[in-house]
Predict the structure.
Amino acid sequence: MPFLLLGFLFGAGFYWLIARNPPAALSPAPTPAAVQARAVTARADLSDFERNNIEVFRAVSPSVVNITTVEHMASLFSRRITEVPRGTGSGFIWDADGHVVTNFHVIQNSDGARVTLADQSSYTAKLVGAFPDRDLAVLQIEAPKDRLPPIIVGASENLVVGQAVYAIGNPFGLDQTLTTGIVSALDREIESVTRRAIRGVIQTDAAINPGNSGGPLLDSAGRLIGVNTAIYSPSGGSAGIGFAIPVDEVNRIVPRLIKDGRVTRPTMGVSAAPPDFNESLGLGKGLAVVGVETGGPADKAGLTPFKRERTGGIVIGDMIIAIGDVEIGNFDDMLDQMERHQPGDKVGVKVRRGDKERTIEVTLGEPE
């Protein structure tokens, strides 16, 4: 009982103490003086660089599109087929007929694609043609021509390291994103989805991220100079090293895709040895011909392949060392030159046999 009385007296005393001296948190706050907004400081005019950034974006962004690939999936409980978004990428309007250029890897392994224009109108796209060796593809949409402003095409042969560039695309699905940078290097080489080398590639430090693929790389005049294609990034995000297919290559391939749906590479009718063949025989630079198709272009022109004797020795044949004025060091070099011609074209092929060189004329054939 004394303990209960002691507890009661202690609690009453504590309550009386709190009532006489309330905590600061329970006390009413003093009324603050009226708070005024800070005065706004006027800014100076935009710099020439800033104004150019704005002008380039305003001029070119209507030509840049967002591409969403889809996969067709059947319902488990009905026969209904639904479209499921699969991935995103970028592209740009090539002409008023609705042709859209993008990377092949953007639409690879998809069942279809939708193209969303800058005004947010969306259209189902059809595949016109693709060239995986150069990671390029052309889609087409049916949209009003006044919504299809073609991008302005520039040139890439006269680019210099250090000049300003702009990239517009849809990184991580964030459409109509502008990034700026410079040409960091030229004549880089990357690998296509078919493991063919893509040469003459532009390197840039403009931020390129997943979703930028297929979008345009622009010069300071807002002209197309490349198609953003790949990044070097251990983390998967921009690390300041992006790559773009040069526009001169794009401008050579896209018209052929629109016309034929594919790039028709003429043939010479030869098969070539791997690089270590040259090294093992000390043949030096060039493409060793180890097979000639009977009746083919090379056969008609008089090319002779390397042959193996019954005794195991090697009979020296022809080595292709140049096509036109372009040196040939490997099979990729030869394919690159074939892509620049059509079946029926006559080309000068420089060959070496032993220590003797000669140039022969070869009429390129149709592919099988």
Summary: The two ends are 110 Å apart (CA to CA). The domain at 164-260 is CATH 2.40.10.10 (Thrombin, subunit H). Residues 203 and 362 are 36 Å apart (CA to CA).
